[in-house]
Batch of 3 targets.
Target 1
Amino acid sequence: MKNDRQPPRRPGSGDEPVRLQKLLAEAGLGSRRQIEGWISEGRVRVNGQLAKLGDQATRADRIRVDGRDVTLKPKRDSETQIIVYHKPEGELVTRRDPEERPTVFRRLPRPKQGRWIAVGRLDINTSGLILFTTDGELANRLMHPSREIEREYSVRILGEVAPETLERLMAGIELDDGPAKFERITEQGGTGANHWYNVVLREGRNREVRRLWEAAGCTVSRLIRIRYGNVELGRRLFPGNWRPLTDEERAELMALAGLRVLERPRPRRSAPGAVKPWRSKPDGGSTSGEGSKWGRRPR
């Protein structure tokens, strides 16, 4: 029999009740999917009662995770932190590794509140851009397939790739977890046996870029994520370093996540050598103040 019990409400809140996982994600405890796992495992209580999936709560309720009280402050957009990190090869996107291999979190700054949540993952052999935020709701929206947010990668392929193979990769290939395809493929040149391509897709399944090329009979010798949504890696952010998003990047990213209507800031005079953020063009391409999206190709 289905249990429709809701934890008792505490008085004194003017907030409308929302799903428990959404409330905790907005507080920066984790992504909604991660918190749903905690609820299923019986790790969350609301006002003394064991929480279940589907329960709602407000910021006035007493919420405990693993026996510890969770402080839910009134949410302000200015409190949400977002940074971009250039992950080098050899690092894991995890907080703890049983083999004690290096992880991305050891290089990140301490957040003002909450904790860093990775927007997607990159495998140990893939380098490039990863976004981190303290807002679990934002992270969930940026990763959710329904948003169809573009991810762009620079890929080095060993050997020649026939035009028919590129057409197949754009038409779609059946993988173990369903069909997949690239939205765009742009040849970037190369020397000797190596050839570079920029590829764009609108989802983030596990090792999807590598698996697509391998399914087409190609060998990936290097893979770098160079863009997520409107945020570009650029040439000035070196591996192992991070930077905060600019106000304009932040506003556009929040709009992509559907969290606010995009308001264009007033034009500002760019500093000499400053990089202009990515912009969509009517033909689906992109432009940048650097002249090319990636600039100098990695060796």
Target 2
Amino acid sequence: MGGTTELTDVTRDEASLRRFLHGLPGVDAVGLEQRSAGLATRSIKKASKLWAIDTAISMVDLTTLEGADTPGKVRSLCAKARRPDDDVPPVAAVCVYPDLVATAKEALAGSGVNIASVATAFPSGRSTLKVKLTDTEFAIESGATEVDMVIDRGAFLSGRYGQVFDEIRTIKAACGDTHLKVILETGELATYDNVRRASWLALLAGGDFIKTSTGKVSPAATLPVTNLMLQAVRDWHGVTGQHRGVKPAGGIRTTKDAIRHLVAVHEVAGAAWLTPHLFRFGASSLLNDLLMQRRTQLDGHYSGPDYFSVD
């Protein structure tokens, strides 16, 4: 694979883009799953575990994306995001629907915690580009510092790669300096080869992050899929010199799950990705388990879920 000039060439028309995506190496599913299972068995020492927990906390996009969300719930979530517990780093971001971004912005003022908003007809991605742009622009005007967009999986699975590419590129242009995470909804992509193609498509179109899932479809984030996406950003960096991030979202609920993902980040992409700038967890319940396990590491006994607020 060539450098950035060659990558620009592959996006000049639909045929070139299709040729590039279908020319990517096929995924060895058995090898991918075996390596993921092997990484999941790695153990870490107590001192390293505390570092891993704090690192994971700093990578959480604390999320609420329910139809019943209220300004009060978002303010409570933001308070937890700012100060999860005593001597604990704040989380990376709070992720909400566009109409609640202004509430989050007010509640997070001066905290350094990012305000992420889903957009582009989340979670289905099924609407006109005009509607998707309006959705994105409203989120940014309301104060979003990050946008989590969804691709049109129907278009992708139908082979309309140019349409998906153009939509991502258009949304990225509307974002300006606002970071763009591109949700692939890997649970609907059916094959690992499609996950690899969708990852590269999103990177080619300018996504700052590639994200596994909306959290509304099962399966959501799995370790093999996360590993595959980490390979994509590693290889992208190898070709372009640019760092892009990965965000697994949905289904990561325990400290053990989070640490397995951090091990994968280190082993697959490299230590440079062990930062909230390049790796995030999209989660709601994960933070409480991280906090409980942190207390256990420090105090030598299990605190129990009642010690922490319920999201």
Target 3
Amino acid sequence: MIVGGIDIVSLTATLMGASTPVLLAATGELVAEKSGVLNLGVEGMMIMGAVAGFAAAVATGNPVMGFAMGAVAGALMATLFAFLTQKLLSNQVATGLALTLFGLGLSALIGKGYEGVRPPPTAKLDFGPLSDIPVLGRILFSHDWVVYLSLLLVAVVWYVLRSTRAGLILRAVGESHDAAHALGYRVVTVRFAALAFGGALAGLGGAYLSLVRVPQWTEGMTAGAGWIALAIVVFASWRPWRVLLGAYLFGGITALQLQLQAAGYAIPVHILSMAPYLITIIVLVILSAIHRHGVQAAPASLGKSFHASS
């Protein structure tokens, strides 16, 4: 179905892949913030995941190894952030910004030798006859395994936070680390685990960018995706399903601007390039205002350091 030169089915199918890096990073950041830690280093973790995943995939010829190493790189960056903020009690905002700058610089250095190199392809899952269903087959059953993993992770995070003891402990630490500590919960350990999980998802999202979305290594290729993930978490009121909506909105506008360029619309390329970021933020702000009466407040301990002696 083509409307105004835009293939709607292709657009809908493309947005799922375009949304995946941001969805993974935002889901991980949601878990980190639920524990009471504000990590502004998402962009740095994503770009390190992108370069580490790309390098591993090229070296081994196996894209799965690339995704695994991307997740490991993101988790290591997050663990460094956790050590600095939870053990050394450094300022979370300043440390997160430093982590982003560190990641951007280190990834540029590591990636110099991979410019112009093509990674091994990531195969799409074979759903057999389901892929041949008109319209729905192309939209729902024509993607690689990471796309479906990102959706599964949203559901798992929602369930864990809502219905499990682990989720209750995580939310308790995020709401009042002093009260959680008084009840015997290991606040620092919980936050380390939440940050490592968030970093792994950010790194996985970065690896998806360099191995599937582009696919090649380009310095600074995350292009602000980490900051969009942070904004989505806040405007989604720390709710997993709203994070999914925000990420798919961003992915949809990204896919649309690419199709508008391909269709030859006389719109300046700079406006098209900024549109996904600008429109996503505007829509999220509007949705947040509309649902203000039901908005879930940020975790009460978000951004606050925990002192074991308190």
